[in-house]
Amino acid sequence: MTITRISSGSPFEEKIGYSRAVVAGGFVHVAGTVGQGDTVEDQCRAALATISQALEKAGSSLADAVRVTYYLPDRHEFEPCWPILREAFGDNPPAATMVECALIDPKYRIEIELTTLAR
């Protein structure tokens, strides 16, 4: 089996020792991704943009998503993200889970982890 590792160029990937995405076994596995911004909506859009860039490098897209997990420190902030997520996935919504938990830094309000089919 061929494994392809994809980097977004984030300094944390080398510092911590992970890949933004890994293509293996017919799937693209995208690491938990946070985004910058002042609001949960800004961070959600930024995280989806970073994820989309990694998927493009892997030859995939959000339209190929089969599973997504959302991590939020405050579950009440998930609902403002719904329109953004509905727009991002359109007619191809993946299976989804939302988990309320602490993130690596209190400034982050959402982290998104995703798996797509590899093309």
UniProtKB/TrEMBL annotation:
Entries under Gene3D superfamilies matching the protein: RutC-like (3.30.1330.40)
InterPro entries, sorted: RutC-like_sf, YjgF/YER057c/UK114
SUPFAM superfamilies: YjgF-like
This protein's name: Endoribonuclease L-PSP family protein
Organism field: Mameliella alba
